[in-house]
């Protein structure tokens, strides 16, 4: 099993097979527009612009499970990200990342790359998962890890 076995609805409402990203290095991140880490959108976008042509993609999954920090509609989220951070990487439909209604992709990600003390639950917005070109989850980054701090590991996988 790999991330390629999942599909997710884009922010525009279209089902997208993650197999479309086969052969690419991915960062999969749960996002929020009203979080102390929201400024990470800027760094994520910069990484995307620098490495996209080399086979790098970012998949952003808005989530409102952490203190209601993503209350908007998909249209509002997309507009916010484009206007404030120039986001052009793929955003997806707002999802749950924890609990019984967690998106199947996130159920898989947390099993493949548990967090601190082997806990599976996502603790906060902007938890990031790195996926290699074969679709394997290779690392989980805490919300406090900035996009810039991930750059060397992204380059190594590219």
Quickly count the helices. 4
What does the average pLDDT come to?
95
Lateral strand order in the biggest sheet: 5-4-3-6-7
What is the CA-CA span between the terminal residues? 22 Å
Low-confidence regions:
none
Our count of domains comes out at 1
What is the general shape?
globular
Query: From the helix content, strand content and strand pairing, which structural class follows?
Result: alpha/beta
Strands, total number: 7
The helix-strand sequence is EEEHEHEHEEH
CATH class: Alpha Beta
Instruction: Give me the Rg, rounded.
Output: 14 Å
Strand content: 15-25%
CATH homologous superfamily heading: Glutaredoxin
Q: What oligomeric state best describes the polypeptide chains here? A: single chain
Percent in helix:
25-40%
Which fold does the CATH topology refer to? Glutaredoxin
Keywords: Oxidoreductase, Peroxidase
Active site: 35
Family: Belongs to the glutathione peroxidase family.
Organism: Heliophilum fasciatum
């Amino acid at each position: 099993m790999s991330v390629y076995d999942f599909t997710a609805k884009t922010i525009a409402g279209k089902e997208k097979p993650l197999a479309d990203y086969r052969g690419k290095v991915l960062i999969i991140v749960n996002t929020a527009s009203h979080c102390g880490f929201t400024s990470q959108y800027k760094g994520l976008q910069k990484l995307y612009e620098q490495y996209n042509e080399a086979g790098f993609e970012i998949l952003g999954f808005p989530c409102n499970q952490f203190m209601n920090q993503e209350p908007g509609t998909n249209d509002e989220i997309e507009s916010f990200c484009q206007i404030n951070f120039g986001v052009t990487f793929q955003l997806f439909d707002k999802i749950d990342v924890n609990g019984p209604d967690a998106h199947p992709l996130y159920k898989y990600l947390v099993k493949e790359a548990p967090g601190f003390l082997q806990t599976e639950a996502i603790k906060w917005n902007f938890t990031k998962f790195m996926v290699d070109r074969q679709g394997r989850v290779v690392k989980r980054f805490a919300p406090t890890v900035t996009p810039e701090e991930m750059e060397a590991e992204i380059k190594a996988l590219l």
